[in-house]
Write a structure and sequence with these properties.
about 375 residues, alpha+beta, six-stranded antiparallel sheet, two-stranded antiparallel sheet
């Protein structure tokens, strides 16, 4: 009996092992990688799949181009789509979480943020993912040569703004005016260890052309009133649904607005001036004029506008002076006031001629000869 029980136990172990081996490979992989899929909801794309999306690069032969940099505050309602959900919920994730996992898996390349703030997608500026984690004190584990970061360790909650580079261009040969996002930089907002003052840390630049195929795969909600209305990250940027303030333009002096504007009021006026220049260029674009003529017209319009404002002020000053003079003259002129109506006398007025003498005598003056 003792040997029989041992044999039965051995047979049961063998049958259990065979049952485990007979399990379909896909099912075994799903059971083993469930946790991994939840933490890494990115989609692997082949080079052929990436080629299905049109390039976001701009031809070097365009007739006009202007590059501007905007700061996107994620606390603004229009940009909330880029921030929520803070932690992945199923297949939904925010923009930074998507970029973060793509960098760790080396599907895209992160480039250093240089002190001048301009992006440079060259070999020397490539950032190692491990170096990025160590620079920004992100906890990670390394297993089999792969970097693993837990959901709660991804600093997506601290990325409260982005820097984006817009390229406004006009191609006269194709008759096309457009705007493209060419680069994105997440900005980390982190308080100091011994103070509550928040410091901004621009983390890295990524080329929009590299991340475009992945952005087109992830859908996000466009508003809270209709949960069915959804779009992709790529459409969100292409349609200009975000809101951001200009903080720098490409210029010869390589200066940001804060470097040549005195205060916040002057910065605001400069931002409005640049925005108006872009609108005016697009509005006047479809005239039968060359780009040089349009530029000259914009200069003349600016001069005319300034002259009109001066003339308007002078006219207003003359009108005010005229009114003041009229009111002053009216005060100095005094009209006689009649207290009662005067009646005409019925008696005739006395004549100034001499009356005849009552005695009838006439006096004659003798003239000497």
């Amino acid at each position: 009996m003792h040997y029989i029980s041992r044999i039965l136990i051995l047979l049961a172990v063998i049958l259990f092992a065979q049952n485990a081996e007979a399990q379909p490979p896909t099912r075994r992989n799903d059971n083993g990688n469930t946790e991994k899929k939840e933490s890494m909801a990115t989609v692997k794309l082949t080079e052929r799949a990436k080629s299905q999306y049109p390039s976001n690069s701009i031809s070097q032969e365009v007739d006009w181009k202007r590059d501007i940099y905007r700061a996107l505050n994620l606390e603004v309602e229009e940009n909330a789509t880029l921030y929520y959900p803070v932690e992945p919920m199923g297949e939904s994730m925010n923009l930074f979480t998507l970029l973060f996992h793509l960098i760790l898996s080396e599907d895209i390349i992160a480039y250093k943020y240089n002190l001048d703030g301009y992006e440079s997608f060259i070999e020397e500026n490539k950032m190692d993912p491990k170096t990025m984690l160590e620079n920004y004190r992100v906890y990670y584990e390394e297993k089999d040569g792969k970097l693993i970061v837990g959901k709660s360790d991804v600093p997506s909650a601290e990325v409260l703004s982005y820097y984006v580079k817009e390229s406004h261009y006009y191609d006269q040969r194709k008759g096309v005016y457009g705007k493209h996002i060419t680069a994105i930089c997440p900005v980390l907002h982190r308080a100091g260890e011994f103070s509550s003052e928040v410091t901004k840390y621009p983390m890295f630049w990524v080329s929009y052309e590299d991340i475009k195929p992945y952005l087109a795969q992830h859908t996000v909600m466009t508003g809270n009133l209709n949960n069915v209305a959804r779009t992709t990250f790529d459409d969100f940027f292409a349609r200009g649904l975000y809101k951001g303030d200009i903080y720098k333009t490409v210029n010869a002096k390589n200066l940001a607005l804060s470097q040549y504007c005195k205060d916040s009021v002057e910065i605001k006026n400069e931002q409005q001036r640049i925005e108006q220049q872009l609108k005016d260029f697009e509005t006047n674009l479809w005239n039968s004029k060359t780009v040089a003529e349009i530029r000259q017209d914009s200069i003349k319009a600016a001069i005319a506008a300034s002259n009109d404002s001066v003339n308007t002020v002078e006219k207003e000053n003359k009108t005010v002076k005229k009114r003041i003079a009229q009111s002053t003259s009216q005060k100095t002129e005094k009209k006689p006031i009649k207290l009662f109506n005067e009646k005409k006398s019925s008696t005739p007025k006395a004549s100034s001629a001499p009356k005849p003498s009552s005695t009838g005598t006439v006096s004659v003056r003798r003239v000497r000869r």
